[in-house]
Amino acid sequence: MTEETVKTQTHIRLFLINLFILAGLHPAFAQSFCDAAGDLAADNASLPWKLRAETKAGTWAAAMKPVIQEMQRLFPQPPKGLEVTYGIFDAMDAHSAPPNARQYYEGFFMIKDIVCYKHQGKNVIGPEGETGNWIYFRVNDFKGFAVNGNSGDLVLAGTELRLNMSGDIRIEENKNGMRSIYFFNENDEQQFSGWYFSERKALPYRRVTREEFARSYREYWLKKIDGEINRLEGVLATSQRTFTRVSAERGIMTDAEKQRFFQSLREGDQKTQQAIDQYKARRSDAIRFTDVVAKSPDNGSEAFVANFNEILNQPSEIRFGSGKGKGKFVYVANPAFYDPRLPKWKPQVITVELRRQDTSPAKTAFTNKFEDEFDFNVIRKMVGMSPLPKPPTITGMGDTPVRETGRPVTENSSSAENGAGFFEDFADSAIGQAPAKWTLSNNTGIVKKNPGQSGNWLAMSKEGLFFPDYAVLALPNSFTVEFDVTWTKNISYYSPSFYFHLGAAPYDNTLKRYDRALVNLNAYTSSRMERVALWIDPHWNNEHGRYGLQVFDARGGYKLDKADKTKIYFKDNNLVKVKLVRQGSLLSIYFNGTKMSEDAVLSENIRWNFFGFGVDNAPNADPSDEFYVSNIRLSK
Fold it and tell me: Are 494 and 515 contacting, i.e. CB atoms less than 8 angstroms apart?
């Protein structure tokens, strides 16, 4: 079997695996589509606002009325092809809550595509079953701050306030006055949660101290352990009563049968007593451990739990850390945040979250209009904040990922005015160091001199993503990307492939960086980003190089995968001048001035704003093999 055959079979296997995954994930494989006329009718169907019953009366409905009025101002009629449902969710179970409990609830907009599907051989037009597009307005709600943050039944000692585990929660305000909620993990990867509105300087949550957490942990386990001890002691008492009753019985069991039965009782009692002793030992350990923590000199410092049983969703063995590295902080709702003189239902803090997991044209247009035109002065007024002179919108305040503002903000650009000017030849970068204003995978990319070439080059050898911190909110519909790529001469057949990516990676204009949770720095790709990838394999067989184009959806599923051979480059013939030209949806690819392909792969419904370079995983590669890139130019 030739090396080329082995490599071909490997690519086929990988494609079939991805195709199988795509078939399980992509709704197109699970839905029965109508004919063209039915699909067109669904796209043009128009439905009125769908208002749930709880939105029409009551204190919560009155409090949320400004939100629905503003949404109806934007959308007097929901766009064609959409069903928009407005509702208010009772997040606290008000019927069972104490009379004076702070009331928290959320107004939500559920945005569904109207679709055509087959039912008993006929076209049926109606809303889709599930949707990934929602807009939430959460009122007085702490739990919305804690992303996947829960601790089972663990509550703050002496209260009913539930403890939450989470990374570092921060509220950051940009220069335009828009506040955003973030969660940071131990790798400094941010997760954007939503927008935050309150006039108060305090926060509706706080971190608990080590002493508070230790006492809460102790209270939780002593209650749980004492309950088990009491239950098991009850088992022993029942066994003793059974022994007394059976001993007094006559004519039911023979003496031999009674002795066997009593032996069974004794064996069971021994096991029960062993369990009681074990629980008592655990009780003593919990008291001893929590006493040490509660009475330690640093008991007033913030609790940072480094070992917590998240699978069982309850506290088990715990280890306190320093606040850095693996672990989570412990948060609790802050009742002192709320003004007790105000009605319990009165909004005092509102967080807004926009989920846009689906990217149909109608949904995209809806969320874009919301970002562009929803006046957040409405929300500011609801919580007592003063209005801003200019109506604040998400895009207008510069706080949106993947949006086009007309004049994008750029961090690393030679022409901030046109929104597409960028040039990098690493001339100002120090040899042997990482280039400034670039994000590199595991800090492995450094600037080097390239044998046989002039100038400075970014060298890449290990799997990962390498990209400039180029803060463009959306690339224009027409642009050109050019760069030079070379590699080590006589590169190994087992070398990795070089990748260039265009993607839709949310750029955070408050933190001035791409979303670390969605852009996987440690891999040559990112499974949660809409992405078009051009790859170059410089040693496919004994005389050809190979290249390919791949298109992925936001879940990593293939939408296109094509490849071909070329003699333009191969091993020692190792300089390729790459040019990619976008015209609307069309992407044309050139190698050394020769047009290689033209495909309609750049959906105009997606705000493309990311470009970067990568090297894929190749376990058997020669460690001395490297790829080099330079003379990177982005222009209209």
Answer: no
